[in-house]
Amino acid sequence: MISIVLNGDSRTCTAGRTLRDLLDEAGYAQRRVAVEINHEIVPKSEHAQREIRDGDRIEIVHALGGG
Question: Which of 13, 35, 37, 59 is most buried (CB neighbours < 10 A)?
């Protein structure tokens, strides 16, 4: 198990998980999101390859519609 901070909350997850796995698990699948890991934007094209590492600080921002 590894420890991460997701949107300001500490949590644990299994080693070897990708960013896409985390987004699916957190309920962000199929949503338009911007993701920052350790203060660096991660392009959507890298979500499936970017492995989550112990100590990562991850911020997920999703767009909301409205008017």
Answer: 35
State which H helix or E strand residue 57 sits in.
strand 57-62
Is the pLDDT reported for residue 29 higher than 90?
no
Number of CB atoms found within 10 A of residue 57's CB: 13
Tell me how crowded residue 2 is: count the other CB atoms within 10 A of its CB: 16
Instruction: Decide the pairing of beta strands 2-6 and 57-62.
Output: parallel
**Lookup: tokens for 48:** 């499936």
Whether the per-residue pLDDT at 53 is higher than 90: the answer is: yes
6 vs 32: CA distance, rounded Å: 17
